[in-house]
Write a structure and sequence with these properties.
With 341 residues, the chain is of the alpha/beta class. The chain has 12 helices and 13 strands. The structure holds magnesium ion.
Length: 341
């Protein structure tokens, strides 16, 4: 077993409602058993109180127990780790991912087959445009010519958000989704959302700050556009509480703790009549590929984190032209570019 911190460098500054990033620290792990290696990735999130160092410690603490036991019973292993309560979402996700990769390789089948998920013919992801000046955002939209679906980040300044969307609509008629990352007040959301609806936006993600479920429920009942929640929903435990506040949820491996929990969330959301999208953080092709294996279960995809970085240490799924293509390779079908990883 080994872990490694790695700086993922962004091609361009990535602006969100509350932050701008130039790079993100990822934590990778490798579990070796029966002559093969399983790879896992964590994208520690400061916003959710994670640090790379704590994630490394959590992975190392649990990896040795895992390798001492029977690695095939991934659900049992992940349940035990969750119950121990000392591994955050992204640390769990890295271990879960490495286990699926490992077991898939040992059995010589891709993870989606291991899970019994038939890949859809066409898996299209959105491509994210971060917040910047209006001119830079329009440049980014032009550069994203190959992607049929765009996700526009908003929430820093509602007046600019409206102008940005009006200007974008002048240059493209693509499917557009909006993510405010909790940056609007209820009043701002009520002003902005009808205008976005007129401009043909498909849905709005996390309009209000996390924790504002009452106001978000009010917005849901009133909104001309579907409302998705992201920052408010981490694991299946959260899903029931917010059924009244949204039309859909954004599931991320890094928030929920990996494929095992993501499957539980998607089933629960479907039973409750909620739409599902699979999202990501800034991640390498390793974690994006892990998401791709369960992507066929979702209504919407936002798996573009690896397209935004310039030093991807893995070769795996890349959504060229916005389309995700799963290879028929064992495990996650991902290769490290450097050895030893
Ligand atoms: Mg989001």
């Amino acid at each position: 077993m080994r872990t490694r911190q790695y700086e993922l460098k962004l091609k361009r500054p990535f602006g969100l409602a509350r932050s701008v990033s130039l790079s993100r620290t990822a934590v990778f792990c490798r579990l070796d058993a029966q002559g093969v290696s399983g790879f896992g990735e964590a994208a520690p999130s400061q916003y959710y109180g994670e640090t790379p160092e704590a994630v490394v410690r959590a992975i190392e603490r649990h990896a040795s127990e895992i390798l001492d036991g029977d690695i095939f019973y991934i659900r049992d292993i992940m349940e035990k780790i969750k119950t121990a309560g000392n591994a955050t979402g992204s640390a769990q996700a890295a271990l879960d991912m490495a286990l699926y990769d490992l077991v898939g390789k040992i059995l010589n089948i891709p993870v989606y087959k291991l899970l019994g998920i038939k890949p859809k013919e066409m898996l299209l992801t959105s491509y994210t445009i971060g917040i910047d000046t209006i001119d830079v955002m329009l440049d980014k939209v032009n550069e994203a010519r190959e992607f049929p679906i765009l996700k526009i980040k908003m929430g820093r300044d509602v007046e600019q958000d409206i102008v940005v969307m009006q200007e974008i609509r002048k240059i493209t008629d693509k499917v557009i989704r909006v993510d405010a990352n909790g940056g609007w007040t209820l009043k701002e959301a009520k002003k902005c959302i009808p205008l976005l609806a007129d401009l043909g936006v498909e849905y709005v993600e996390q309009p209000l700050d996390r924790g504002k479920l009452k106001e978000t429920a009010e917005l849901k009942n009133w909104s001309p556009l579907p409302i998705f929640l992201d920052e408010d929903v981490h694991t299946s435990k959260d899903v029931i509480e917010l059924t009244d506040a949204c039309h859909g949820i954004n599931i991320k491996l890094m928030k929920c703790g990996g494929i095992t929990e993501a499957l539980r969330m998607v089933e629960l959301a479907k039973s409750l009549g909620l739409k599902t999208m699979l999202g990501c953080m800034i991640e390498s092709s390793l974690a994006i590929s892990a998401g791709a294996h369960i992507a066929s279960l979702m209504d919407y995809l936002d798996l573009d984190g690896n397209l935004l970085i310039e030093n991807d240490p893995f070769i795996g799924v890349r959504a060229l032209g916005g389309e995700i293509k799963l290879a028929d390779q064992p495990g996650l079908g991902v290769l490290p570019k450097e050895t030893p990883f």
